[in-house]
Design goal:
Largest sheet: 7 strands, mixed
Number of strands: 25
Helix content: 25-40%
Structural class: alpha+beta
Number of helices: 18
Strand order of the largest sheet: 9-10-7-17-14-15-16
C-alpha cells in the first residue's frame, strides 16, 4: 500500500460581513464579462445559435425556457438554439441559481442580447442590399429582402463583432407577436436522459485513469460551528487498511480524511475499515423540540418595518391574539447522494459537479488549493435534485483535493448516510405573532422571526483549516416576512443569530415558514371573529393581483363560505373528518425589502383520522400568477413538484439529532411522501402575458403548510402550530381540542 499523509494550503482570513450583515460574494474574478452581447449569444456558420447563461438547470426545465426566449427574440426555430450553462470558463457569473431568479433576472441580459443580435444582422443585410432594415423580415433564421433576397444568420454573422455592450434601449418583441414564448414545449433535456445518451449525470462520468474515493467523516455529524472543527482528529491507523487491494492513498489534513483506490468497492471498504480516533465533540442542545434552543441562541434584533405603535395598540386591545409557530430542521433529501469528478494536473484543476453555484464553487476551490482564477474550471453536470444546497459542492471540493494528492482524476460519491448527515439543512425557525382587528378594515400586527443562519461553508475548507469555523450571522430570515394585509400599525422584526448546526438555503428559504405563521394566524383571527377565512382575508387585502388570484382559485375549487371549523365526517369512515383550508401569498425573495416573485394561492382538502392522528392531503387547487409564462407545461410541472415536496415537508419531514449531531441518516429515519400519498393536484395559471415574468420555482410551496394546517382546523377544530403535522402531534392537538377518539 502506498499510504501517506498530505497537507493542504495554509489558512486564509475569513471574509468579513458587509453593511447588510452578509458576506460579500464568494465569486472568482469572472473571465467572461457580463455586459457584452457576445457573452450571451454566438452564431455559428451553419446558423446554429449558442445561447449562454450563468445559471444552471436544477431539474426545473429552465434550459428549455431559456432556449424559447432566445429563439423568440431571434426568430429561429427552437431546434436551432443550443444552451450553454454552468461552465465557469465559458459562462458569465450571474450568481447562484437560487431564489426563483433565473427567468426573472438571469434571462434578462440574454434576451436583450438576442434582440440586439437580430437588429445587428438586419442592419448588415440592409447594408448589403442597400435598403432600409425596416423593410426586412425574418423567417426561421433567414433574413428576407424586398426583392426576394435571402441570407441566413450564419452567413450574415461572419466577421460581425458581437463584443459590444448590451444596449438597454434595445426593443424586445411584444407579447402579442410571440410564437414560441407562451407555448408548451417538451423539455429539451429529457430525450438524452431517457435514451442514455451522454453522460448527462455527473455520477455517470468516467475519465481515463480515474480513481475512486470515499471520505471518513468526523463524529460531529452535520455541524460546522465550534472549536472542534478541524481539530478533532487524534490518530489514523494506516496499517488497518493495508490489506485492502488497490488502495492508492489515505489523505489526511486536519479533520479531512479521504481514501483513494482503483476500484469503487475497495474505496468503500477502506473508508469503513480505516481505524480513526476522534475527540468527542461538545454536546448540542435539544434540537428535536427546537424552540428552547433557538430562543437561547444569542441574537440581534433587526426591525424590518415599523408603522405606528403596534405593540402599544395590541397591549390596549382586549381581544388581541397571540401565537407561536415552530418550523423544524429539514433536509433537501436528494434521492441520489452527491458526486463529483476532479482532474488536477499541471497546476490546474477541472471539476465536474452537480453544483447550483458554479462560480461560488470556483472561488472555494481556488482557496482550498491555493490556485489562481485561471487554474480552476467548474463544469456543471446534471445531478440529483436538491432545490437548495446539498453536498454537491462538498463532494467537488473533496474530489479536487484528493485528485491533487494522488496526481490522477478522482471520482468521489457520498454514501447515503453521509448525504443525510452532512448536507446543509433547511434551518429551524420560531415565529411569534400578535395581532388584532382594529376598526373594520385594518389590523394591528407584530411579528418576530428567530432564524439561525445558513451560510454553510464548504466542509473541506473548514476541516483542513483553510477557513476558520467561526459562526457567520446572515440576514436571510426576512424573506416574505411582511404580511400581505392592510395594517394600521405593524412591527416586523427578525432576530438574526448564528447557526446552531450546518444549514443552507432550501426551497422557499425563510418565506415558507414565515407564511405558515402569517396565514395560520390570519385564519385564527377569522375564526375568533366568526368569519369565513377567505372573506376575512379579502377585507384586508389591497394588492389587486393577490385578490384576483384568491377569488379565482376559490371559485375553481368551489369554496363554500362559512366560518371554520365546519368539518364533516367521511361517510365511508366515521372516524375520519374532512376539512378544507385556504392560504395565499406572494413570494418575496432576496435581501430585504426583496423582490416580488410569483403569487400563489392554495385551497386544499384533508382527511384526518381521529383515531390515529394520520393526515392525508387529498386534493390541492393551486392558483398561480407568475406574469408572462415562457413554457406553460414547465410552470405546471414546477407547481406539481412544489406541491409534492411541500406536502411532504408539512406532514412528515423533520431532522432528528442527538447530543453529537444528526441521527436521521437513512430513509427510515427521514420518511418522505410516497407515490400513494400524492394528492390530486389542480393547477390554474392566471393569464398575464402582458406582465413581466416572475420567478416560478418556489412560490408554489409558500402557502402549503398554512393551507394544510387551516384545513386540519376546519376538519377537527384542532390548531397545529408546529411542523411537521405527524400523527403524534395531531393526536395531541385533537385531545387538547376534545376531538380525539382513544
Amino acid at each position: 500500500m502506498n499510504a501517506a499523509v498530505s497537507a493542504n494550503a495554509g489558512p486564509v482570513s475569513r471574509e468579513r460581513l458587509n453593511a447588510q450583515g452578509e458576506p460579500p460574494p464568494r465569486h472568482a474574478v469572472s473571465r467572461v464579462g457580463k455586459g457584452k452581447v457576445g457573452t450571451y449569444i454566438q452564431i455559428a456558420p451553419d446558423g446554429t445559435v449558442q445561447a449562454i447563461n450563468g445559471h444552471v438547470d436544477l431539474g426545473t426545465g429552465v434550459r428549455t425556457a431559456f432556449a424559447q426566449i432566445v429563439a423568440e427574440e431571434l426568430d429561429v426555430p427552437l431546434s436551432r438554439v443550443c444552451m450553454l450553462m454552468g461552465d465557469t470558463d465559458r459562462t458569465p457569473d450571474q450568481g447562484p441559481t437560487t431564489a426563483s431568479a433565473s427567468i426573472q433576472s438571469a434571462a434578462v441580459p440574454m434576451r436583450r442580447a438576442a434582440a440586439q443580435v437580430r437588429q445587428m444582422l438586419l442592419r448588415r443585410a440592409a447594408e448589403q442590399w442597400h435598403c432600409a432594415a425596416a423593410v426586412l423580415t425574418v423567417e426561421h433564421g433567414m433574413v428576407c429582402g424586398p426583392q426576394g433576397q435571402r441570407a441566413g444568420y450564419g452567413e450574415l454573422a461572419q466577421g460581425l463583432d458581437f463584443d459590444v455592450d448590451i444596449d438597454p434601449a434595445t426593443a424586445l418583441k411584444p407579447a402579442t407577436e410571440h410564437r414560441i414564448v407562451g407555448r408548451s414545449v417538451a423539455r429539451l433535456d429529457i430525450p438524452a436522459k431517457v435514451t442514455g445518451a451522454g453522460p448527462v449525470y455527473v455520477h455517470d462520468l468516467r475519465l481515463p485513469g480515474m480513481l475512486h474515493a470515499r471520505m471518513v467523516r468526523p463524529p460531529y455529524r452535520g455541524r460546522d460551528v465550534g472549536g472542534m472543527i478541524g481539530r478533532s482528529l487524534i490518530d489514523v491507523d494506516l496499517p488497518s487498511v493495508g490489506h485492502i487491494p488497490g488502495l492508492v492513498k489515505v489523505v489526511v489534513a486536519g479533520d479531512f480524511v479521504g481514501v483513494v483506490a482503483h476500484r469503487e468497492e475497495h474505496a468503500i471498504r477502506a473508508a469503513r475499515q480505516l481505524k480513526v480516533a476522534w475527540r468527542t465533540p461538545p454536546p448540542l442542545p435539544d434540537l428535536n423540540e427546537p424552540q428552547a434552543a433557538v430562543r437561547a441562541n444569542p441574537s440581534v434584533e433587526r426591525v424590518l418595518r415599523e408603522q405606528g405603535s403596534a405593540e402599544a395598540l395590541l397591549d390596549g386591545t382586549p381581544h388581541a391574539h397571540q401565537a407561536t409557530y415552530v418550523w423544524p430542521y429539514q433536509m433537501h433529501a436528494s434521492i441520489g447522494p452527491s458526486c463529483a469528478v476532479a482532474d488536477y494536473r499541471d497546476g490546474a484543476v477541472t471539476v465536474w459537479s452537480g453544483t447550483q453555484n458554479p462560480h461560488f464553487l470556483h472561488a472555494d476551490i481556488m482557496a482550498l488549493l491555493g490556485l489562481d482564477d485561471a487554474a480552476v474550471r467548474i463544469v456543471r453536470m446534471e445531478a440529483s435534485g436538491c432545490y437548495g444546497r446539498n453536498c454537491a459542492d462538498d463532494a467537488a471540493a473533496e474530489a479536487a483535493l484528493l485528485s491533487r494528492e494522488v496526481g490522477a482524476p478522482v471520482r468521489l460519491q457520498l454514501m447515503r448516510e453521509e448525504e443525510h448527515a452532512w448536507e446543509p439543512k433547511g434551518t429551524t425557525q420560531v415565529m411569534d405573532v400578535r395581532g388584532a382587528v382594529v376598526g373594520h378594515d385594518a389590523l394591528a400586527y407584530a411579528f418576530t422571526n428567530r432564524y439561525p443562519s445558513n451560510n454553510a461553508p464548504v466542509l473541506a475548507l473548514m476541516q483542513t483549516g483553510v477557513v476558520p469555523p467561526d459562526p457567520i450571522v446572515e440576514h436571510k430570515g426576512d424573506r416574505t416576512a411582511v404580511p400581505q394585509y392592510r395594517c394600521q400599525a405593524v412591527r416586523i422584526a427578525v432576530q438574526d443569530m448564528a447557526p446552531i448546526v450546518r444549514a443552507a438555503w432550501m426551497r422557499g428559504v425563510s418565506a415558507l415558514p414565515n407564511v405558515f405563521a402569517h396565514e395560520s394566524f390570519i385564519d385564527e383571527l377569522a375564526h375568533r371573529h366568526g368569519e369565513d377565512p377567505l372573506a376575512f382575508r379579502l377585507r384586508f387585502m389591497e394588492d389587486p393581483r393577490a385578490r384576483a388570484l384568491s377569488e379565482a382559485v376559490a371559485t375553481r375549487a368551489g369554496w363554500l363560505a362559512g366560518a371554520a371549523p365546519r368539518g364533516r365526517a367521511d361517510p365511508a369512515h366515521p372516524h375520519v373528518r374532512l376539512g378544507r383550508g385556504f392560504a395565499q401569498h406572494q413570494y418575496v425573495h432576496g435581501s430585504f425589502p426583496g423582490v416580488g416573485s410569483a403569487y400563489c394561492a392554495w385551497v386544499c382538502d384533508v382527511a384526518v383520522d381521529l383515531e390515529t392522528g394520520q393526515v392525508r392531503v387529498t386534493k390541492v387547487w393551486v392558483g398561480y400568477d407568475c406574469g408572462m409564462v415562457i413554457n406553460p407545461a414547465g410552470v405546471r410541472h414546477q407547481i406539481h413538484g412544489n406541491v409534492v415536496q411541500s406536502v411532504s415537508r408539512a406532514l412528515m419531514e423533520q431532522v432528528n439529532f442527538d447530543a453529537t449531531g444528526v441521527v436521521s441518516q437513512e430513509w427510515g429515519a427521514y420518511p418522505i411522501l410516497r407515490f400513494g400519498d400524492v394528492p390530486d393536484i389542480d393547477v390554474f395559471v392566471m393569464p398575464a402575458q402582458d406582465q413581466p415574468p416572475l420567478g416560478a420555482g418556489e412560490s408554489g410551496s409558500i402557502p402549503s403548510a398554512a393551507a394544510i394546517a387551516n384545513a386540519i382546523f376546519d376538519a377537527t377544530g384542532a390548531r397545529l402550530r408546529q411542523v411537521p403535522f405527524t400523527p403524534g402531534r395531531v393526536r395531541a392537538a385533537l385531545q387538547a381540542a376534545g376531538q380525539g377518539l382513544g
